[in-house]
Design a protein that fits this description.
- The protein has 533 residues and is an alpha/beta fold.
- It has a domain of 225 residues: 3-Layer(bba) Sandwich (FAD/NAD(P)-binding domain), CATH 3.50.50.60.
- Helix content is 36%, strand content 18%.
- The chain has 17 helices and 21 strands.
- The strands form 7 sheets. Strands 11-2-1-15-21 form a 5-stranded parallel beta sheet, covered by helices on one side. Strands 18-19-16-20 form a 4-stranded antiparallel beta sheet.
- Helix 1 runs parallel beside helix 17.
- It is globular and about 65 Å long.
- The two termini are 30 Å apart.
Amino acid sequence: MGERDKPEVLVVGAGHNGLVAACYLARAGLKVQVLERNPHIGGAAVSRKLYGEFTYSNCSYVCSLLRPEIMRALELPRYGLQIIPYDGGCTMMRDGGHLALYDNHDALRREIARHSKRDAEAYDRYARDVIRQCKFIKPLLMREPPDPTSFRPRDIRELLYLGGHFQRLGEQRMYDTLRFWTMSAADFLDEYFESEIVKAHMAGSAIIGTALGPRSPGTAYVLLHHYMGDIDDTVGAWGFARGGMGAVTRALAASLQASGGTIRTDAGVERILVRNGRSVGVALANGEEIHARLVLSNMDVKRTFLETVDSDDLPEDFVRQVRNFKIRGSSGKLNIALDGLPTFPAIPLGSPSTRGDMHVTDTIEMMERAYDDWKEGTWSRAPYIDMLIPTQIDPTMAPDGKHYMSVFVQYCPYQLASGPWDATKRKAFGDTVIDTIARHSPDFKSLILHAEVRTPWDLENEVGLTEGNIFQGELTFDQLLFNRPIPGYAQYRTPLRGLYLCGSSTHPGGGVMGAPGANAARAVLRDLRMEAA
């Protein structure tokens, strides 16, 4: 590689946050190269053909959190990204009943009233209060969190902004917000609803991707985290990326390449090179060294500092805090090719609620017991599942007349009490999930053509997520804002000059959001301007 072609910035990992950061830096005129260890890009936002002409969204499976300002700035629709909203959702009950959720507000109220007239009245209050919390947190998503112990002018300005933003809520809303960020989802929902099925449906968002149960303090915030996205200015709406979640990262890659950035696949980073307290490049698994002015790691904080940086180059206290950062695997995933559309007798034929997320856990107690199994070191005997059939809306993902089902599962441990994961245990886990669905769909099993079963161990080894944690770290209050990932290092910078974090271990956390990547890129550009001044 000639000196003129030498990259100024290396981004480790072609997941969506790494690509977002690379896009912003390339558009600022820097020579950027993204290094990806797999033969394909995407990280957890990937679409792959693993069975015939079926396209699987292997890991992440729905889109809402991707920030609209990022989509606009990087022109992602121009590069093929199309988000298709889905129509609602439902929870099927063990007694044969169901609760459907619809986009239409009046239809939704009537549906909730079938289970509780009181809850139908309470829903508007619940939705109002959740939206208020969303409106409070959303302006903070694309801002670098301040260091509350610093007296630097920028940190003081950000603290004043945060304090003023909080004060504008008013006294009562300030108390409500502090309670909300620390309470359990179960306690939060009890303040609004009486019907078990209504509470169970709402509580699902509070446990997806997290190693906590619905009665665990802090899960009310996790519920909020899943409401913070929007599609076409509809707050909390969810949708499918046409062609699977890989469409997000394909559009980002196209945007990057249009700005002059490059991507290398099959280029696993073995070591981040450090000289005199500064990162100077990376060493690849094949022994090749690539030197650059700056390195951005899209890997999680543990993988970055415990596996690719020599501990002798880091402060001892920092390494200790990284080891204590909570990244716990709790989620599994099934991708299923179907010979046709399964029927669900509990749901009226043709209901739009089947074109969204479908669940079969009808009480919070069932969720808590599923969590108890995880704590005992086994997958849940009656798991919480979030299943969708995106081919009802996006026919590009399967051959004509066939369908693809995505099934996200809580809870599934990274380490089993009975020993390491193997093919037999993986099949047993998959059978548990399939049997759970089949109790609500008599023809489901007969339609299965192929099933990919992924445990947290698989997610770690295939995607690079420590313990398979989809958020790169728990979203609890002790690991948010200026505590994420480490107090004193929550601003995308690290103890090593020239090394930045841009993944979901940083503020504002996980999901296909892009905000960590965009915020990290802005931090880099600010530092470069300061160096040039």
